[in-house]
Write a structure and sequence with these properties.
374 residues; alpha/beta; Rossmann fold; 2 domains; seven-stranded mixed sheet; two-stranded antiparallel ribbon; 14 helices; 9 strands; 15% strand; globular
């Protein structure tokens, strides 16, 4: 049975130009043959878990994942974890207000000192924009300026930042464009860090669920969401878009910055859901369009997914460079878990299996021609 499983997996990998126990950078070195059964029955969950457990290795994990996705062999829909997640997603809203707290507690609250070493000085934990940039710091600032120009910010405007992270975008907008910002994050660690850095600026960073902002009486000239939609879930996409509409003036603009996927699927990779982003979901363009339909106007769509590959590789380099400072604080498997997370994500963007969309939306009273910004 084990020999048959190895033969079938080797045959499938060969379609992606990947060899078991080969010598190239993207080939797989098998350390424990029992990994094959876990992969065969558990799909992508087993693939990730066996890597973290050290049952197989590869010199360039990002290249391996790129080849797997580019070849189209990454189907996982028959694996048990996928089917279980599919049933759960059908019957249960995985992103209720109670469930939404889990990702803040388990991922974003890992420790601000940890993220300070991996990210840029503004703690931007989303895709950077590398056009004309020489390093991560410059690339993240260019991303922020790109967003501000797309929103056509003017001094004195009021901006709502949904899912603000550590508040880097809110602080940049206030400092550079002279706007007032109300921002909200699900992570108490992010809120605390952001509040300390935004002192003296017209920036109000709050800890809570994005849906709580509906109680806010004031309206906003602009609404921005950078990296929130991946945590909203398909049952709540319309809720998010309706919230944007309800809190934005009729002639306002909004920008949604989100990871996207080529094919519509209500289930996210089970490994990432279990170990990295609990209850997360990557939307398709069709799911976003359906949520926006009859609510707001899509003015512009910009795919900058190419830039996420480079961003993730920069985070990985920082993570490795500073690991010695943190290895005593985290479980033994943490390094390989984050290595798999960062490098497999880079490979998925390199192959265009995942993309990064910046979508500009306008209110129904917005007049004139919207000039796309790049």
């Amino acid at each position: 049975m084990k020999a048959i499983t190895e033969m079938l997996i080797a045959k499938k990998l060969a379609r992606a130009d990947v060899l078991l126990n080969g010598s190239r950078d993207w080939d797989i070195t098998l350390r424990d043959t029992s990994a094959l059964n876990r992969i065969a029955f558990m799909g992508s969950l087993g693939f990730g878990e066996t890597y973290v457990d050290g049952q197989w290795d590869t010199p360039k994990l990002d290249q391996l994942i790129d080849k797997i996705y580019s070849s189209g062999i990454a189907g996982r829909k028959r694996a048990l974890p996928y089917q279980y997640a599919r049933v759960q997603q059908f019957f249960i809203n995985q992103q209720t207000r109670r469930r939404s707290k889990k990702v803040g507690e388990e991922h974003y609250d890992l420790g601000n000192d940890f993220y300070e070493k991996m990210l840029c000085s503004r703690m931007m934990y989303t895709c950077a924009y590398w056009e004309g940039a020489n390093n991560l710091e410059e690339a993240q600032e260019k991303k922020l300026d790109l967003i501000c120009r797309k929103l056509q910010l003017q001094p004195g405007m009021r901006v709502l930042d949904l899912g603000c992270g550590w508040g880097g975008a809110a602080k940049y907008m206030a400092e550079t464009y002279g706007v007032e910002v109300v921002a909200i994050t699900i992570s108490k660690e992010q809120a605390s860090w952001g509040q300390s850095k935004a002192q003296g600026l017209p920036v109000d960073i709050r800890h809570g669920d994005y849906r709580e902002i509906r109680q806010e009486k004031q309206m906003f000239d602009r609404v921005v969401s950078i990296g929130l939609m991946e945590h909203v879930g398909p049952k709540n996409y319309a809720t998010l878009i309706n919230l944007v509409k309800d809190k934005m003036v009729d002639d306002g603009l909004a920008l949604i910055h989100t990871i996207g996927r080529k094919a519509e699927d209500k289930v996210t990779d089970p490994w990432f859901t279990r170990y990295i982003f609990p209850n997360g979901h990557i939307p398709s363009m069709g799911q976003i369009s359906q949520a926006v339909s009859n609510t707001l106007v899509i003015e512009d769509v910009h795919n900058i997914g190419y830039h996420y590959d480079k961003t993730l590789m920069a985070w990985y380099d920082n993570f490795v460079a500073h690991w010695d400072q943190f290895k005593d604080q985290y479980p033994e498997h943490f390094f390989r878990m984050w290595e798999y997370y960062l490098l497999s994500s880079a490979g998925s963007f390199r192959s265009k299996h995942h993309q990064l969309w910046q979508i500009v939306l306008s209110g129904n009273a917005y007049q004139g021609y919207y000039q796309s910004v790049r």
